[in-house]
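As a warm-up, study this chain.
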Amino acid sequence: MSANHDQQMYYDFDLLSKLVVGIGEVADITGVPTRKIRYWEDKGIVRSVQEADGSTRRYDYLNIKKIVLVQELLEDGYTLDAAARKVEDRMKNINDIFQKIADKQNTPQP
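Now compare it with the structure written out below.
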């Protein structure tokens, strides 16, 4: 890959780590109603970013991704509990894979 492409990927990851979006905008972008997002938060499936008390609920990249994945699984016929478990398992698997890659890159090569 070119240096420019690698640099662009860095900016994308940097942007995603700082991305925080209000509940109304998340609903507009994902097509998942705000009421449903609040319910999922009450059930512990997603978490809003804690800011000042009484402020609009806001969600980071990871939780927006969960919202999209859960909704897709619901549309495929999964129950909410099964969809939530499946998404958590997928997120854990992805995290484990990237952790292995990071560990391998940080291990000195002979």
